[in-house]
Amino acid sequence: MSSNLDALYRRVIMDHYKKPRNRGVLEDGSHTINMNNPTCGDRIQLSLKVEDGIVVDAKQEGEGCSISMSSASMMTQAIKGKKVEDALVLSKVFSDMMQGKEIGEDLDLGDIEALQGVSKFPARIKCATLAWKAMEKGLKEEEHE
């Protein structure tokens, strides 16, 4: 990856960290998921509102490193308005990306793509995937209700 692209990705990550999107708690959410990463202390509370198989709204709050918090911000943006199954597919694509697997060039991941460099730092992968694992847990509960 070029140094210009690295710098752009760092800016995107820091923008989401300093100005997180969808920060807060949904009072009328259908799911609230609390997760933490005991290794580094990152924690997230994810609130999801699912209606008729669609993620209508998503909010997140917590504390942690820039990777963890920016990933939560990006994830909530990415899943709002998506069908539950599409949000779970996106989570699988993100997980593959974190494992260094090639992702299809036809996929537009938007800001999420800025996190692809994390795959080079195994200790940071759990930081990036925390919010995604919380989302999966909440949406898989939705599928079983």
UniProtKB/TrEMBL annotation:
The Gene Ontology biological process terms listed for this entry are: iron-sulfur cluster assembly
* Protein name (Swiss-Prot/TrEMBL): NifU family SUF system FeS assembly protein
* Matches recorded under Pfam families: NifU_N
Q: What is the similarity comment for this entry?
A: Belongs to the NifU family.
Looking at the record, the residues that make up the NIF system FeS cluster assembly NifU N-terminal domain are 9-127
Molecular function in Gene Ontology:
iron ion binding; iron-sulfur cluster binding
Q: Where is the signal peptide?
A: none
Q: Determine the domain of life of the protein's source.
A: Bacteria
Gene3D superfamilies in the cross-refs: 3.90.1010.10
